[in-house]
Design brief:
single chain; mainly beta; Hypothetical Protein Pfu-838710-001; 10-stranded antiparallel β-sheet; 2 helices; 10 strands; about 10% helix; about 50% strand
Length: about 150
Amino acid sequence: MEIERKFLVKDTQYKFLAKPELIVQGYLSIEPNRTVRIRIKSEKAFITIKSLTIGITRQEFEYEIPLIDAKTMLNTMCVTLIEKHRYTIHLNDHIWEVDEFLGNNSGLVIAEIELSNENETFSKPDWIGEEVSQNPQYFNSNLEANR
């Protein structure tokens, strides 16, 4: 299970806390009840299947796949690609993933935190802004449509 909250980022303080990593991803399927994503992160590739989100929780299955297969799928089966720089930041027993989107989504910066349960409390860094966890406009699978 993936329990995740998403927030807009209001300034660039996070850039001093980690080095960015380039991520390229595309979707093989975007259905109301599931998404199937291909992602290349560093020199590793993954296929991820996610169920419908209920609240801030959904099922997630992720498997490493051969890099050459991922590149082929991204280039031949995905209509558009999302590129982003990800900063992985360890703060107060949690991991924040801050994504700076490139291309048509340039300027958008979203921070995510995974939780062990929906009611878990956590401290928000000063650079965290408005919560957008349940706003479909900010789902990665919908950002693809903005390209």
